[in-house]
């Protein structure tokens, strides 16, 4: 398949804007009649915090039909049309055709509560690597976008990260950092397991990530926006220094990974590579592929004065 990234990118941006208008209209209808239960239907998936609303479904239908009409040979992976039971590892394989990986409404719980951190997240993966990412948060409103080699942008005109050149990570990071993390939806082993382990991990990471001279250093703050895609977008702007989530899926992160990498940040699905703050080695294609359920993102960071590398 010949992939014309510029054309695909323009299509994805317009699609995210069109879907954003549908989200705005739905939110407005909901605001005007918040208590009418027919206004928004929602259902539980795995548990009471894993929800799907009628808006998730109608947005996914809109996105899928628009894409398959324009690009009938491409594959589609969406949060609501993914069939449970498929292998959880590497949903998009190196041999897969170009695959649109989409979360029609990231921040579903936020939407239910009319907390505006909700977005449409659209990405194109080629051989499992995200090459286009568009995140539209129309209630903010903010649109984040990137394509491989084309940089990352806020509202199409402001380059990311916002501070250019980006400042170095604070001396003794995570001291002085904003650390963002998400709680996921796995509640199987409440009250003793998963969530408690997670909070412990967050506290450890916020106080001694990577063990890089962080002894005694506390993060400036810990944030959870309720949308993994928006966490990544704000790591790309430079507002968040470090982001971590365990338990998310390709559609939660695909667009944000592309945007953060194009903004000069680092995303891995493991621990940060040794020496990342001084500039990690060029990652291999294998390392760029999405897969696994844990991701760590670090914002673009410039050199400290007097340091090279
Ligand atoms: C969820 C959000 C949440 C994260 C979950 C995601 P959804 O996506 O991004 O912040 O913790 O792992 O599944 O259900 O709102 O699209």
TrEMBL record:
Shown residues within the full chain: 46 to 354 of 379
Catalyzed chemical reaction(s): a myo-inositol phosphate + H2O = myo-inositol + phosphate
Name the record gives this protein: Inositol-1-monophosphatase
Record lineage: Eukaryota, Fungi, Dikarya, Ascomycota, Pezizomycotina
Keyword flag Hydrolase: yes
Its EC number(s): 3.1.3.25
One record GO biological process: phosphatidylinositol phosphate biosynthetic process
Domain of life: Eukaryota
Binding site for Mg(2+): 79, 103, 105-106, 252
Keyword Magnesium: yes
Organism this protein belongs to: Pyronema omphalodes (strain CBS 100304)
GO molecular function list: inositol monophosphate 1-phosphatase activity; metal ion binding
Keywords from the named record: Hydrolase, Magnesium, Metal-binding
Record family assignment: Belongs to the inositol monophosphatase superfamily.
Pathway named in the protein's UniProt entry: Polyol metabolism; myo-inositol biosynthesis; myo-inositol from D-glucose 6-phosphate: step 2/2
Cofactor(s) this protein requires: Mg(2+)
